[in-house]
């Protein structure tokens, strides 16, 4: 039983939500200022970037029940869009994000088309092809993408003069990047929250759980799936752009099939059907790919061979199995269960529901038949 | 009174099997019409053809002035047709309230683009939530509104499905075996509810049902199918002693 019980929508509930929100925001704002090392600021910035990609993948996999192992391609598409516009056309970094969104919306919708006919394992196979194809395409057009040599921007993103962070310290520029990325990421989390809470979000859940009765309830299943793919890809594209803002260099190996698989592992570890789950998911992702990889590389038993990647792969596989069996709802589910032990939020009837007492068709406020 | 739903010469084939072979009937506005027949008669197939989940090989389905065969399954809800399923088709990952809210999808206005913004969805959400809750209250199950569907008793889930269909305020309600699996008292209550929907709420109902006593008690018109063809049709009093019907159910006297 919970130690405290509060009613949904009550003053206490509102205060609790605002308090938690403000505390979280304050934590994220102060974080880079108290961290002394550039490397650590860069790590938390990466966590923020990847959380957006995982969030997008969650909209598709967790909320709409489709599978994609091709999201590395969308992250890459966003990343390349930004670096090409910045390095070759002198665009400001942040202005490239809307372009990434558009490019990935279209690409995502196209990849979503097979999902109208196939699902599960077969859809996974098709999306693997997308992930495998992306590095090949990058190497096919070296004049455009830099090919296997990668592509770099000469200048990092700089903050305007009025910004409070002093850019002439070692931690200045990465802190600037962190704040810019944080603002964009916060916006993406807000958008994801809005989608999930809306009529469209409910339609996505219905398509995930039972497509047939979704159609019988008036949900255009095909459109909803395409929308989920497009939006999910757009989130991944934004994440790609943010990654380039953090480190303005791309190469084909930065967006390979492994990235897709790690994103999926991180999604499940964080909690796939939860917006907030993207944050623990991203922490798992970055810890696996940087700390564990570094640790494995330093292991004596490998004789100094750079085999960290293999160890990371083995650990991610084990982690995935462990989560599926022990905590299928991911870290966020565990945290929610913990919170319920402390505070139980009791839902209450919607406000003014008596106004809408069922009166059938005879006293409807709008015509029952909508002309299409 | 005019025909709200008219079916003519409906043919449905699954591979080489002809499930429906030229079935015709109509449902008058404001009536409860029942589709009966022994197992395999094609009742549910006819139902699924009407709700556009099965593609007929031939025939016509007209609802008011609309040709349903030119439309998709998802379009029907917007025209004012709602249905329930024989084996329940609720969404286990959502709460009871959310399940009912989805039923009102076609009445919603918030599109894909608007869903990205918070406000329009929140305003709409508030009303849909209240309506769904009121619908649950109508069936006396508002106390489970915030529970997951999983683990609730069958009778409750049947009511949830009915609530999901009704929250769209349909003109025509299609019910696939509404009394199936219900306890005796629940069946009587269901009958009263359905008659109330017809009498007080101006709805037209088409139901597939095996429970004969229930069907004969509430229906205005009964259509009997056998082996994918029309057998007999008429009001319950006319059909009760129909030799064709007795033969279809029990076999011909030897």
Spell out the key features of this protein.
heterodimer, A: 372 residues, mainly alpha, two-stranded parallel sheet, two-stranded antiparallel ribbon, 14 helices, 4 strands, 3% strand, globular, disordered C terminus, B: 254 residues, alpha/beta, Rossmann fold, 2 domains, six-stranded mixed beta sheet, four-stranded antiparallel beta sheet, 9 helices
Structural account:
The complex is a heterodimer of chains A (372) and B (254). Chain A has a two-stranded parallel sheet with strand order 1-4. The longest helix of chain A has 26 residues, at 38-63. Chain A is 66% helix and 3% strand. Chain A has a domain at 41-256. Chain A is globular, with a radius of gyration of 22 Å. Chain A starts with a strand and ends in a 26-residue tail after the last strand. Chain A is built from 14 helices and four strands. Chain A has 372 residues and is mainly α. Chain B is α/β, with parallel strands linked by helices and 254 residues long. Chain B has two domains: 1-80 and 170-254, Rossmann fold, CATH 3.40.50.300; 91-169, no CATH class. In chain B, helix 6 (184-199) links the parallel strand 7 (172-176) and strand 8 (204-208). In chain B, helix 3 (96-102) packs across helix 4 (119-138), helix 3 (96-102) runs parallel beside helix 5 and helix 4 (119-138) crosses helix 5 (154-166). Chain B is globular and about 70 Å long. Chains A and B meet through helix 7, helix 8, helix 9 and helix 10 of A and helix 2, helix 3 and helix 4 of B.
């Amino acid at each position: 039983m919970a130690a405290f019980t509060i009613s949904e929508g009550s003053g206490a509930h509102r205060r609790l939500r605002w308090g938690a929100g403000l505390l979280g925001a304050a934590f994220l704002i102060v974080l880079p200022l108290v961290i002394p090392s550039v490397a650590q600021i860069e790590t938390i910035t990466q966590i923020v970037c990847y959380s957006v990609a995982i969030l997008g993948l969650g909209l598709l996999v967790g909320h709409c029940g489709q599978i994609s192992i091709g999201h590395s391609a969308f992250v890459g598409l966003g990343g390349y869009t930004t670096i090409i516009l910045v390095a070759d056309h002198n665009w400001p970094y942040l202005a490239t994000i809307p372009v990434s969104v558009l490019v990935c919306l279209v690409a995502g919708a196209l990849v979503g088309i097979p999902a109208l006919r196939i699902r599960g394992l077969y859809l996974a196979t098709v999306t693997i092809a997308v992930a495998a194809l992306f590095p090949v395409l990058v190497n096919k057009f070296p004049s455009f993408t830099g090919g296997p040599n990668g592509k770099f921007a000469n200048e990092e993103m700089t903050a305007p003069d009025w910004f409070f962070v002093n850019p002439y310290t070692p931690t200045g520029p990465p802190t600037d990047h962190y704040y810019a990325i944080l603002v964009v990421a916060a916006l993406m989390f807000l958008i994801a929250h809005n989608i999930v809470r809306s009529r469209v979000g409910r339609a996505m859940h219905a398509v995930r759980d039972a497509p047939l009765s979704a159609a019988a309830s008036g949900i255009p299943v095909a459109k909803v799936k395409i929308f989920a793919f497009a939006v999910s890809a757009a989130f991944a594209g934004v994440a790609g752009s943010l990654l380039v803002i953090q480190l303005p260099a791309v190469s084909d190996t930065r967006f390979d099939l492994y990235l897709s698989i790690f994103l999926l592992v991180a999604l499940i570890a964080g909690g796939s059907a939860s917006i907030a789950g993207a944050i623990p998911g991203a922490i798992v992702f970055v810890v696996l790919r940087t700390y564990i990889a570094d640790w494995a590389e330093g292991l004596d038993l490998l004789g100094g061979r750079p085999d960290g990647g293999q160890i990371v792969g083995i650990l991610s596989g084990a982690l995935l199995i462990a989560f599926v069996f022990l905590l299928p709802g991911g870290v966020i589910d565990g945290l929610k269960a913990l919170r319920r032990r402390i505070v139980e939020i009791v839902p209450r009837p919607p406000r003014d529901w008596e106004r809408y007492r069922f009166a059938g068709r005879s006293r409807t406020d709008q015509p029952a038949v909508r002309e299409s | 009174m005019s025909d709200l739903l008219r079916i003519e010469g409906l043919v449905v084939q699954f591979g080489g099997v002809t499930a429906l072979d030229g079935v015709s009937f109509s449902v008058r506005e404001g009536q409860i019409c029942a589709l009966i027949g022994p197992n395999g008669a094609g009742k549910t197939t006819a139902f699924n053809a009407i709700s556009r989940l099965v593609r007929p090989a031939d025939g016509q389905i007209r609802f008011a002035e609309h040709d349903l065969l030119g439309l998709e399954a998802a379009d029907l809800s917007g025209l004012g047709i709602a249905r329930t399923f024989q084996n329940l088709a609720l969404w286990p990952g959502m709460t009871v309230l959310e399940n009912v809210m989805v039923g009102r999808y076609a009445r919603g206005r918030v599109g894909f683009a608007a869903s990205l913004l918070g406000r329009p969805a929140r305003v709409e959400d508030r009303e849909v939530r209240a309506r769904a809750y009121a619908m649950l209250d109508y069936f006396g199950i508002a106390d489970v509104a915030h529970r997951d569907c999983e683990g609730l008793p069958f009778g409750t889930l049947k009511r949830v499905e009915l609530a999901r269909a009704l929250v769209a305020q349909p003109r025509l309600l299609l019910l696939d075996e509404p009394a199936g699996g219900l306890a005796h008292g629940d069946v009587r209550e269901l009958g009263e509810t359905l008659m109330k929907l017809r009498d007080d709420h101006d709805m037209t109902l088409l139901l597939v049902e095996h429970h004969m006593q229930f069907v004969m008690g509430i229906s205005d018109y009964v259509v009997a199918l056998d082996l994918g063809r029309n057998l007999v049709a008429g009001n319950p009093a006319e059909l009760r002693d129909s030799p064709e019907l007795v033969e279809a159910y029990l076999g011909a006297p030897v």
